[in-house]
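Hi team,

Below is the intake form for V-type proton ATPase subunit a from Erinaceus europaeus. Please confirm the fields before the structure is written into the shared record.

FORM ID: S-0412
PROTEIN: V-type proton ATPase subunit a
ORGANISM: Erinaceus europaeus
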Amino acid sequence: MGSLFRSEPMCLAQLFLQSGTAYECLSALGEKGLVQFRDLNQNVSSFQRKFVGEVKRCEELERILAYLVQEINRADIPLPEGETSPPAPPLKQVLEMQEQLQKLEVELREVTKNKEKLRKNLLELIEYTHMLRVTKTFVKRNVEFEPTYEEFPPLERESLLDYNSMQRLGAKLGFVSGLIQQGKVEAFEKMLWRVCKGYTIVTYAELDEPLEDPETGEVIKWYVFLISFWGEQIGHKVKKICDCYHCHVYPYPNTAEERREIQEGLNTRIQDLYTVLHKTEDYLRQVLCKAAESVYSRVIQVKKMKAIYHMLNMCSFDVTNKCLIAEVWCPEADLHNLRRALEDGSRESGATIPSFMNRIPTKETPPTLIRTNKFTEGFQNIVDAYGVGSYREVNPALFTIITFPFLFAVMFGDFGHGFVMFLFALLLVLNENKIKLNQSQEIMRMFFNGRYILLLMGLFSVYTGLIYNDCFSKSVNLFGSGWNVSAMYSSSHSLGEQKEMVLWNDSVVRHNKVLQLDPSIPGVFQGPYPLGIDPIWNLATNRLTFLNSFKMKMSVILGIIHMTFGVVLGIFNHLHFRKKFNIYLVSIPELLFMLCIFGYLIFMIIYKWLVFSAETSRVAPSILIEFINMFLFPASETKGLYTGQEHVQRLLLVITALSVPVLFLGKPLFLWWLHNGRSCFGVSRSGYTLIRKDSEEEVSLLGSQDIEEGNRQMDDGCREMTCEEFNFGEILMTQAIHSIEYCLGCISNTASYLRLWALSLAHAQLSDVLWAMLMRVGLRVDTTYGVLLLLPVIALFAVLTIFILLIMEGLSAFLHAIRLHWVEFQNKFYVGAGTKFVPFSFSLLASKFSNDDLA
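The structure came back. Fields below:
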């Protein structure tokens, strides 16, 4: 509890690491996660530090491992993940590991490149066979047809021939065949027509099955085309257009015999390529399987090695360049383990001179370390989201473990909904050792990380549901109602009692839609319900009025107690930091201001509950009127709650009025008095003690380091100090702002706690509406069709309950509970201006394969 109540004491230590043992010592420190390194080379560029070459080597190894993981995933080979984390590799094995990985990368790239070439050749040959098969049906040609065949008649038969006609006589018929993607066919045909001016004949046919593109590997639909043209110039144009549209062009056979020979040759080459490709893939898979066995350990080792060199770059060298000096923050409780880790590292490296540490004094504010476990981690994260606590100040997380789920349950109170939430959280807790839950989607992982918060929220909601007597908007009669309806009938009483009291008879029951129970009649009210609200209120027409009054007063009581507790916790901070003057000049006036006004309001609420009964309830004064009269001083005397009420209220107002100037001026005047060399109380310090950074106390109390040795030590630690700089106006303005904020905040924060009442009312009404619109309708249906209708109604009711009342309403109550803790509770004592202790620990490195880590 000590560590959770207040952050652990820290110290600044200096490590002297021999050059030959620095790597092993930091490896031992990284395994234990004991210290946080300070950067002693802040003015040195990252590219000019001592171990930048080693960091680049680690980045090169990470690049190679990322390539290996990518190839292993592409081959669908499972990546084994070890349960234990391997240690950082010794320096002797680093060069050997680098050489092995580089050799493996070269081999994999060569084999992969050959495989891609074989695969591309195979796809081209398959396309060629499809092209030959389809184009065989395009043109019917004779065996004796030659490419030198002239399409035009002899010269003697043509009487009128010009120069152009003479050129056409020598023109030859040519063919271009290939494959084109389906989406480019129309544009391709238009381009051929426009460029070749109609001197081409294009024939298309769609392939029956899609083929894989040899260039991109994408499976798409293809069209086979055959273009007939005249002349070499047009042929060149056709080929350029085919290149522009990325057509796969293949040679077109001139004769049927040539077609048959090409087809036979293609089939033989395809079979050979299949054989060679299978053997290549088998060899590649064997290499990848062997690499997959050790890739996990190597990824972790490289990460650890890189982290070590990053920490070494934060160290400085001594004048001889033989020893590295590091400054680290370390918890005082771990100093022994720090020394042992340095000894283990020196022993592992075989050095004759061991590395050692030296504790050094400092006035700097140390980082904040609060040790948590899987139960307290979620609550600590809620507090840290507001701000990391200042060093050694009271940690609100210890009290948040109880107050946060309780305030949530006040707003969410329903026995049924809370029990469903509790079962869901219990399921997560029982299966917390399953890795899949922690690696699931972001929303599910968020629920998993907050499983213990959900568990307590559900458990407290069950309790408040029993107090409200709400279970899916219905009351549960566990102990029997304390109200007796039969006692209201006139037949249950004597004639004398019937004349004095308003009782029921058969006529009254028949002719009145609303009947009123009178608790002053003997036997009607037999005593309070043992636990929570009496279930008879669920049938009352004034149920909402009664619950609103109850929940509103309960919200005010809980809010004032919560805020007062925050002010009390501030006293523990002042005692720890040895600033007792803050207790007398700040905390006590704040408590008096809070208790004399709002504490008195709680007293009036509880007093009225205890003193006035059902018989005297009609003459009971209004608390609101009495509270207003406390400040207005009415001329006419009013009947109060108790005798002497007016004198008590005036005394409380006088105390409140006196506490305000003390709160405004007490602390600034005391610091001004202290600055002029007066004796004080409660400001002694020994060693180094945290004083809030840039605060007025630091200016006035720690302005000078010269403390006279002759002053006697008083019980409160009084010392005489001098101050180099003191700005009374600034201190006065700061304290005035704080005082105004506190005084106004007491009112606004108390009103803010009414959200407990508002959200509880909203949740109860939504639950009631959902029951009335679904379950009540389903239960009132005739028995013939009721069973068939009830099943979908129950299913819809369950879905809407989960998504609206559990998730949406639960999230709303969760956010409001966070606000009450951050704004209304923590601002009374919690500064949250610290820095979190981030140790050099290998456990913080990602231990899973992810693109971000290996990219």
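SUMMARY LINE: The first strand starts at residue 10 and ends at 18.

Thanks, M.
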